[in-house]
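Ops channel
N.P.: pipeline sanity check, posting one input/output pair.
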């Protein structure tokens, strides 16, 4: 058994920021950060656009950022949480800079603030088109400077440890469920180890891999969401899956899909048809800079009406020298598949990008399970509501990491590491005879979700998805009960769980709001509340 004062599952901006802040305040605490792959392989690394924060107060203010966030969230944001994140955000960004993160500057040596869809002002701090990778680099370097932070790579968290593992019956309405740690698979030697801690934090990222096309890395399989659901924790708003409007359309296929940052449209890129017709003003007065839910639905509709596989992003009119300096990786990626942005429009399609729902947490990141916190994309804090405003995700992770750290530092000494936790049992299991049973089921889940629970939904599609997910779930649970644990099998199990949660939540919300659009209920119902538990 490996014991720590604090155990953090995930090594993106949420997990690493949290670890650094606790380590800085309490050098006596042992902190373990667990990553299922290499430390840097997280959704954070793939974030291109940047961090939204009120920076230039001559042009911008908190009220504008708050209003933009509430508007994008389609009346489902928690206004108190929005105010907290927006007002505390600039201080968190300043800490990132102090820790070594670089952001692009303009000719006047001030920060070059970009603009993205749904924002009324330029407030996006960025580093070229690899902001997330730059933040991850700085955070890893900073975390390694603390001797009380243990960074573990290639450990796959299988399940949370609660009273259930002690033989108690735990159901969703059981009061005072407690978390003691996790069982995790060491991917290098296939041993399953027990990790115990006084405080446990899920910073496990999103679940974009439930869809065939996603900008999320292959590690984004909803592990934290599935674990807390099995532990009977509270989850909400899973129907709100954000599809980024502009992933690069590449018939050869990419996994993940290459993201063409929203900042490109903020820079002046215009969405067009193959004939060069600008179409977004037919849907919203903000044109190509409308919020993501509106733009993604517009592109999806144009593709279906015209019977084509993609739309286009036109950058040919832009200053190409400045474009290449700002978006070098996007430029090079397009060149690699034969597209010269200076001469040709960029073919784009919407792709799954971000989970706006997740583990329900309070304003200090506490989940419904005692001693268990959650931070980052795996959570539902109330910030995003029915649709996330561009570049608010990294901001949310940093603000809540700060708040969780403060609460843990204050309360960790009141908790004890649980004794009497049993080791993981492997009796009666064997290696699966056919790996195709796992790989094919993963493909089926992706196809089901993409076909029936995508940008546009209906009762018939959701019922078909639910029936098929249920069938694969039963097959997989039978396989899981008799097979030795592997990352592939666990990921399949978690993908199915998240697919079920998204489909169930979508079926329950009988209205169209934000990222959830259904042809059976095309109007918004201001009085409807949906919580999936």
């Amino acid at each position: 058994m490996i014991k720590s004062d604090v155990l953090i599952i995930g090594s993106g901006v949420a997990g690493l920021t949290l670890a650094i802040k606790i380590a800085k305040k309490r050098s006596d605490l042992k902190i373990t950060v667990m990553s299922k792959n290499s430390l840097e392989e997280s959704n954070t690394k793939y974030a291109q656009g940047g961090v939204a924060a009120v920076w230039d107060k001559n042009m911008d203010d908190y009220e504008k950022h708050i209003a933009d966030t509430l508007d994008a969230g389609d009346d489902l944001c928690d206004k108190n949480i929005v105010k907290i994140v927006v007002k505390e955000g600039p201080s968190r960004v300043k800490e990132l800079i102090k820790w070594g993160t670089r952001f692009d500057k303009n000719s006047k040596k001030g920060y070059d603030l970009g603009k993205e869809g749904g924002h009324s002002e330029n407030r996006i701090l960025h580093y070229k088109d690899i902001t997330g990778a730059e933040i991850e680099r700085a955070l890893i370097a900073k975390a390694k400077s603390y001797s009380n932070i243990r960074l573990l790579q290639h450990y796959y968290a299988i399940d949370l440890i609660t009273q259930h593992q002690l033989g108690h019956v735990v159901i969703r309405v059981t009061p005072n469920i407690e978390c003691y740690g996790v069982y995790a698979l060491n991917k290098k030697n296939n041993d399953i180890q027990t990790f115990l801690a006084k405080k446990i934090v899920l910073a496990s990222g999103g679940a974009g891999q439930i869809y065939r096309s996603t900008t999320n890395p292959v590690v984004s399989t909803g592990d934290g969401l599935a674990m807390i659901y099995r532990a009977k924790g509270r989850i909400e708003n899973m129907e709100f899956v954000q599809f980024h409007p502009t992933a690069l359309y590449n018939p050869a296929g990419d996994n993940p899909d290459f993201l063409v940052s929203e900042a490109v449209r903020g820079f002046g890129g215009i969405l067009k048809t193959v004939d060069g017709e600008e179409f977004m003003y037919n849907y919203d007065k903000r044109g190509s800079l409308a919020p993501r839910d509106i733009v993604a639905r517009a592109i999806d509709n144009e593709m279906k009406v015209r019977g084509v596989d993609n739309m286009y992003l036109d950058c040919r009119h832009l200053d190409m020298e400045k474009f290449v300096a700002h978006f070098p990786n996007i430029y090079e990626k397009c060149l690699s598949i034969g597209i010269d942005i200076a001469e040709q429009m960029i073919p784009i399609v919407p792709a799954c990008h971000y989970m706006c729902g997740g583990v329900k947490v309070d304003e200090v990141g506490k989940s419904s399970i005692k001693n268990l916190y959650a931070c980052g994309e795996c959570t539902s804090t109330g910030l995003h509501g029915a649709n996330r405003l561009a570049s608010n995700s990294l901001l949310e992770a940093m603000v809540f990491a700060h708040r969780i750290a403060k609460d843990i530092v204050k309360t960790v000494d009141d908790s004890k590491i649980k004794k009497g936790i049993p080791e993981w049992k492997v009796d009666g299991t064997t290696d699966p005879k056919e790996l195709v049973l796992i790989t094919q089921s993963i493909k089926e889940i992706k196809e089901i979700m993409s076909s029936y629970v995508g940008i546009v939904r209906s009762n018939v599609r959701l019922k078909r998805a639910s029936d098929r997910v249920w069938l694969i779930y039963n097959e997989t649970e039978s396989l899981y009960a008799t097979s030795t644990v592997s990352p592939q099998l666990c990921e399949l199990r978690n993908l199915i769980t998240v697919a079920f949660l998204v489909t169930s939540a979508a079926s329950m919300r009988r209205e169209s709001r934000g990222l959830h659009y259904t042809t059976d209920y095309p109007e918004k119902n201001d009085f409807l509340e949906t919580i999936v538990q």
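N.P.: looks fine end to end. Residues 529-533 have pLDDT under 50 and may be disordered.
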